[in-house]
Amino acid sequence: MISTLGAALAPGIAILSYFYLKDKYETEPLHMVVKSFITGILLVFPVMVVQFGFQEELELGVFAQSYFLAGFLEEFFKWFMIYYTVYKHVEFNEPYDGIVYAAAVSLGFATLENFFYLLSHGLSTAFFRALLPVSSHGLFGVLMGYYLGKAKFVADPRKKRIYLGMSLGIPVLLHGTYDFILMAGSDVWPWLIIPFMVILWAVAIRRSSAALDRSIAAAFRRHYEQEEAEKI
């Protein structure tokens, strides 16, 4: 049990640490990040109940299972919790903060899913789970957080609505596509999932760097304004 728990926790903690420590200028309060991670863990249970209810009542094909049961439901629950617990919080004061908190929620969710899977299928699947399901959840969270950060700090109400829509729509689309590839068949999916994950990592790292640059610029601007105010 201890080894299974460690194997389930390790990839999520490692990926979250990478994005958390990337912000060297104004690191988010650790208790807030841990709280977001635990929120993601707790989200697994209501999502499982809702997914089970739809599976019992409806005969869903591969497309609906991928884009609705997995993509929409899981990403919507994450987005909803992030929006109402973090997005409006005073600690969300820089564009990069959205990435940290959304990644924390997503990786908390992925960690408990990973634990349940390893309990059922054994530790032999741990490496595969770390490379694909856990990291993909984290990267969906990075992109969700990137657009939440864009929405938070844009003045134009129309652009704010667009970015909020993108913060949910893009992770749903990517998550659904990921699941659809895995359900495509044993002979096909390895040739599709590898380039998908490479591109996903590349885009997530580029977006996180762009958000970090904006956060650094905002931090210097606040520091300059504070110094000017003190001179008066």
UniProtKB/TrEMBL annotation:
Alphabetical keyword list: Cell membrane, Hydrolase, Membrane, Protease, Transmembrane, Transmembrane helix
Subcellular location: Cell membrane
GO CC, alphabetical: plasma membrane
Superkingdom: Bacteria
InterPro entries: Peptidase_PrsW_arch/bac, PrsW
Membrane topology: Multi-pass membrane protein
EC numbers on record: 3.4.-.-
Keyword Protease: yes
Major subcellular site: membrane
GO terms assigned for molecular function: peptidase activity
Pfam families in alphabetical order: PrsW-protease
Enzyme class, spelled out: hydrolase
Residue ranges of the TM segments: 6-21, 33-54, 66-86, 98-120, 126-149, 161-182, 188-205
Listed GO biological process terms: proteolysis
PANTHER family per UniProt: PROTEASE PRSW (PTHR36844)
Family statement: Belongs to the protease PrsW family.
Main function: Involved in the degradation of specific anti-sigma factors.
Protein's name according to its UniProt entry: Protease PrsW
